[in-house]
Amino acid sequence: MSGNKASRQKPCHHCKSRSASAPSDTSTIHYEKFWLYRHCSSVQQRDRQAQKAGQLFSGLLAMNVVFLGSAFISSMIFNHVAITLADVWILLSILKVLCLCWITYYLLGTSRQPHAVLYRDSHAGPIWIRGSVLLFGSFSILLNVFQIGYSTILIHCKSRVEIVFPSIEILFICTQAFFLWRHSKDCIQVQHNFTRCGLMLTIATNLLLWLLAVTNDTIHMEIESQLREVEQRFEGKAPFSHPYLSNETTLCICPNTTICKVFQKGYILLYPFNTEYCLVCCSVLYVMWKNVGRRISHHHIPYIKPQFKLQGVVFGPLLGTAAVIIGICVFMVYQIQATGSAPNRQVFVIYYSYYIVLLPLMSVGAVIGTIIHALEKRELDTLKNPTRSLDAILLMGAALGQIAMSYFSIVAIVATDPRDLLNSLILSYSVLLIFQNITQNVFIIDGLHRQPFISPGKEEEMKEEENHEAYDQRAVNMLELGQEIRKVSLSYIHSYSHLSWKRKALREISFFLVLCNIILWVMPTFGAHPVFENGLEKLFYGYSTWFAIVNFGLPLSVFYRMHSVGGLLEVYITA
């Protein structure tokens, strides 16, 4: 009996060591030993590798297509005898036919397969982007109709390719606009590589159409400016010759009929919308390309979709409307006087003075908005969002065009005569424009990365849902759950009462900047180009060099204003 008691009181050393090591063995679970974990990990790794390989291959395809088309367009510009505009049109027509075949296959085949579109990106393809596609697409279709009519009237001196190319362009624009309107939010889950290649081919085609449109638009502006110089230097001087003005161009003159003049003026007026359409389509297609094969969890889906309301904004719409009305008046005066045979110097003073007054107001508003963002302490939205990343890249990239032209103007003015009235106005305009672009970009990008504001009642409802999910998973006591909800609601209501003026200020600033960017987009889009007319930079850098600089900067600056409107609307809604 005593022996048994002793044996119970003194366990063996081996048993003690085994019992001591037991907790450490059970507390650590080595998942890599299970075959299911290893299998799932390898499948996920293979899926990521396949996705990267597909993106790389489709990107290389687009790069080669863009380089080939750029070589054609550059050869047409520098050696218009060997490579003509008709050759470029034939290449682009082939690319558009291939894109039409893929879009038709996607609409009728890929998107209708089982489990093809399991997820849709709520951030992709907002209504203002899709509306821009339809608006600019409609103007581009009308542009091609005018081109067909103009070429038909002058069929005796124009190639039939100039009628076939716009016809294919109309079909391409209609099909692509319908495709982007219906499927811009798709996260396709089947035929990944084929879909990526189709999207990249369409992006490359739109980029080449934009490059050709920019090139032709620049040539038209060169011709108009040179014709004005010919009129000014006509008396006693030889006519000015330019390599772009061939004998065929001078002989192919529009007859003195009303319908021909309408086609000609309509074509020149609507031409800038084609460049905007190509850039907007490229941005939407890129987001679709990033979303191929993407799986969105339920936590990424927003609970409440913000809506656009004009509630509580007064000063922003009033100041913005005043800026738009004054800008329209300045634009009309500029168009009447600056497009004549002898542009008046006073009209340039009026034009640049308007910008010098408006740009500081926009910069101050953007700086105040950025400060309010820092004081508001709204949480940052750190979820993966290809649309938001693309918006930031486009804002920074498009602003480079206007900033580059401004720096070239600053150098030209400082090196010549900065004390002249007009030169000092252009210098001030260039400096203020650089500062305004930078401050506005910071304000928009900071606002896009903020969590949207939700009213206290909605916030309490969302917190209840989240806490109920947490309760189901972690078995939290209901009494503690209710106390936590009440604490969160009271603290949020308290913070809302202190931060309401900040949100109102953000909405006022955003709306004011929206209207200002609209008028700054309208003026250069419809023909207000003082950089072509004032002659300062052209005399300093030379004709060809300055037009090459403007060829890069002007389309990007127009696109920047339009894209800023969309970003500011997003900031306004989320405020």
UniProtKB/TrEMBL annotation:
GO molecular function: proton channel activity
Record's compositionally biased regions (Basic residues): 7-17
Top-rank taxon, per record: Eukaryota
GO cellular component terms, semicolon-separated: plasma membrane
Transmembrane segments: 56-82, 88-108, 128-151, 163-181, 193-213, 268-289, 310-336, 348-372, 393-414, 426-445, 509-528, 540-560
Location of the region described as Disordered in the Swiss-Prot/TrEMBL record: 1-24
Keywords: Cell membrane, Hydrogen ion transport, Ion channel, Ion transport, Membrane, Transmembrane, Transmembrane helix, Transport
Protein's name according to its UniProt entry: OTOP3 protein
Source species: Podilymbus podiceps (Pied-billed grebe)
Gene name for this UniProt entry: Otop3
